[in-house]
Amino acid sequence: MRLSSCCLLVCLLLPLPVLAELRQAPEPELRELMQRTVAQADSFVDRFDAEVWLLDMSTRLKRYLADPQERLTLLRLVHQEARRADLTPELVLALIHTESRFDRFAISRVGAQGMMQVMPFWKAELGRSQDNLTDNATNLRYGCTILSYYLKKENSDLDRALGRYNGTLGQPQYPARVIGFWQDIWFVHP
């Protein structure tokens, strides 16, 4: 099968909202936000809160990542990037659970990469072709910034922001899945 036949076949299999999202250039405001935030960090205020949260989340994450050091490293990164982007870390965990089941090498059928399934065109948009989207820190920085932008754009409407993030705006399945994982597995009761 020739390359053009493969591209046509892939395009026929993709839902229309995903195709539309792939064809559109990112919004300039989102591009600027991504450029400003692709290099910052740090998050826990209280050491006790950090230890409690890390232990709790590590226990929940154990079935997806066996290595305790890998779990703690990831959880610190998730907390740091979520807080930096003004997101709830547990929501980010639910999104990662939905997108990749914590597989940092995941690649979607449309080419999205890493735990948060970030589209590689962002590297070119930001002039950062050297960035590795399978690097958890990089992937979380990009993904959290994008989700935060969409939450602000949608006036904190989580369903719409998640739909934009996934390229399925207006379709309830994806937001329902993320929110379901958040409520059933990752939510922390105050």
From TrEMBL:
Signal sequence coordinates: 1-20
Residues in Transglycosylase SLT domain copies: 78-170
Keyword Methyltransferase: no
Similarity comment text for this entry: Belongs to the transglycosylase Slt family.
Matching InterPro entries: Lysozyme-like_dom_sf, Transglycosylase_SLT_dom_1
Highest taxon listed in the record's lineage: Bacteria
Record-given protein name: Soluble lytic murein transglycosylase-like protein
Taxonomic source organism: Azomonas macrocytogenes
UniProt keyword annotations, A-Z: Signal
